[in-house]
Amino acid sequence: MMGWLGMHYEFYNRSVVEVARDLLGQKLVVGELEGIITETEAYGGSDDEASHAYRMTKRSAIMFGPPGYTYVYLIYGMYHCLNVVAEDVGQAGAVLIRGLMLPGKIHLNGPGKLCRYLGITQGYNGIDVTCNESLSITHGVPVLDADYIATPRIGISKAVHNPWRFVLKSEMNFEQKFIS
DNA sequence: CGCGCGATTGTA
DNA sequence: ACAATCGCGCGT
């Protein structure tokens, strides 16, 4: 395919923590909607108790498969979460997309709100984002080391200390406007 | 086959 | 703080 600006297989075929970090600033395109990824989290395999792929199950099997595929799951019976599989085949890993900045400064903070706005449901599970029309990830804005922070992951009860959540600093400022 | 819980969010 | 809401995973 000529003129394809999307991230390639090799981009996702790396350490899931690196992929999570490097997805910051990239552009997520879903149908007619698009936005810059502002927040991610890395989830691993048998070494990560907080991950669905801590053990291989029917649901988490896709996290063991080839990188670059979507992993969409239902959480709390009412919200969906969008992930992109990382690491090589046989090595589990996926990046949770937690924040998106749309044109017009519309900020989707939170994985559930993000999927609800974009219309992402279970039908988006198992899509190869490196060659798909309805959902793709392309080059966005440059992100320097000084532009993001790493923190512990949100909403988990195990492996709580791993600093595998990545947030663009501009989003941190954005969030802080709503405190107090 | 039954049961508890979760990578969340909006409301009180 | 807490309810909403349901499919998955694990134990029986």
* Cα-atom radius of gyration: 15 Å
Give the SSE order as H and E letters: HHEEEEEEHEEEH
- Percentage beta strand: 25-35%
Number of separate helices: 4
- The class by helix and strand makeup works out as alpha+beta
Number of E strands = 9
Give the biggest beta sheet: 9 strands, antiparallel
Report how far the terminal alpha carbons are from each other.
Answer: 50 Å
- Portion in helices: 10-25%
Low-confidence stretches: 176-180
What can you tell me about this protein's structure?
This protein is α+β, with helices and mostly antiparallel strands. It is 15% helix and 29% strand. It has 4 helices and 9 strands; from the N terminus they run ααββββββαβββα. Strands 1, 2, 3, 4, 5, 6, 7, 8 and 9 form a 9-stranded antiparallel beta sheet that branches. The structure holds a DNA duplex (12 and 12 nucleotides).
Topology readout:
Elements: H1 9-12, H2 16-22, E1 27-30, E2 33-43, E3 70-75, E4 79-85, E5 94-102, E6 106-109, H3 111-118, E7 135-138, E8 148-151, E9 165-168, H4 169-176
Antiparallel strand pairs: 1-2, 1-7, 2-5, 2-9, 3-4, 4-5, 5-6, 8-9
The protein binds a DNA duplex (12 and 12 nucleotides) through strand 3, strand 4, strand 5 and helix 3.
